[in-house]
Design goal:
- It is built from eleven helices and eleven strands.
- It has 319 residues and is of the alpha/beta class.
- It has a six-stranded parallel sheet with strand order 2-1-3-4-5-9, sandwiched between helices.
- Strand 1 (9-13), helix 1 (18-25) and strand 2 form a beta-alpha-beta unit.
- The longest helix has 21 residues, at 80-100.
- The protein is globular.
- 39% of the residues are buried.
């Protein structure tokens, strides 16, 4: 995979998140670029004046917008208005600030969790508005879906170079392990580590059969950089890996690396297992970029090793 260098000074929002930190860790792969990584303490993205002032003061050539308010089912159920309001405000403010200050390229982030619950597999980009989102996370889903018409509208009216990229399950050494914010993979890593000693059973919801796609955060960062320089179409595009593993396979991989006997794992079939399969079609991205992903097992091993080494260090592991 090769990249040109059309946009040199890049603002990365969500710089303290999984992908933001992953991109920061590999920024040496892009020596012709200057990166500014920001977190919520640097700029309130829900305030247009702050966002516009930040962009104006730094003279950015490009923006990669990774920041989002997100969480697990409990968080989504409790704070649906916050998820809808803050994510919509952030997305619109980023585009507006880019427009007002003449930013050369803006990249926005969508999520595969936004697709209709009955979307056929593999899910294609065109299915985005073909039905209702899952009720458990509807407000976040619709905030993400709104990016697609936002991209088209700003390109049409203002001739802006703005694109939308859709990611699936993201993980890396810098995953969020907080109970109300973690995805399934991070939640399992923390649960297994904290219960690795002893002989009691470690519970996992469902029968373990559902299949899930996960993409290593460093790969997401590399894919964003390729698209920043090479993809200019109005159609949103999937950039995640399509490698799938069942929940049970993933749980066994984690247990094996932590030295936990597989017999200790208990799959509680009285608990909901979630959608059985939610595969995506990334053929458009692969055909254009010839991108090569880090194998899931390799990324998982790196993630677990980092977590075990730095558990308890608040600056390195978010618990």
């Amino acid at each position: 995979m090769t990249t040109t260098t059309r946009f040199r000074k890049i603002w990365v929002t969500g710089g303290t998140g999984t992908v933001g930190k992953s991109l920061a860790a590999i920024q040496s792969e892009f020596p012709k670029h200057e990166f500014i990584f920001s977190g919520s303490s640097d700029c309130d993205l829900t305030k247009l004046d702050q966002v516009s002032d930040f962009v104006r003061s730094h003279h950015f050539d490009g923006i990669i917008h990774l920041a989002a308010v997100a969480g697990g089912i409990a968080f989504s159920t409790k704070y649906p208005a916050t998820l809808l309001r803050d994510n919509v405000l952030m997305n619109i403010n980023i585009i507006e600030a880019a427009r007002l200050n003449g930013v050369g390229k803006t990249v926005l982030t969508l999520s595969t969790g936004m697709y209709p619950v009955d979307a056929p597999n593999p899910i294609k980009e065109e299915y985005i508005h073909n039905g209702p989102a899952h009720q458990s996370n509807y407000s976040y889903s619709y905030a993400k879906r709104l990016i697609e018409p936002s991209v088209r509208a700003y390109r049409t009216e203002y001739d802006m170079n703005v694109i939308g990229l859709t990611v699936n399950g993201m993980f890396s050494e810098y995953s969020d392990y907080r109970e109300d914010r973690s995805i399934m993979l991070a939640a399992l890593i923390r649960r297994f580590y904290e219960n690795r000693k002893g002989s009691e059973k470690i519970m996992i919801w469902g029968d373990g059969s559902p299949l899930r796609e996960y993409t290593y955060g460093h790969d997401i960062g590399r894919a964003f950089m390729w698209c920043l320089e090479n993809y200019d179409d109005p159609q949103v595009m999937h950039i995640g890996s399509t490698e799938e593993h069942s929940v049970k396979e993933t749980a066994f991989m984690i247990a094996d690396q932590m030295g936990i006997e597989r017999s200790r794992l208990f799959f509680d079939t009285s608990k909901p297992a979630g959608i059985h399969k939610k595969s995506t079609d990334n053929s458009k991205f692969i055909s254009r970029s010839n991108f090569k992903y880090t194998p899931f097992k390799v990324g998982l091993e790196r993630t677990i090793a980092y977590f075990c080494e730095h558990y308890g260090e608040s600056k390195k592991v978010r618990l």
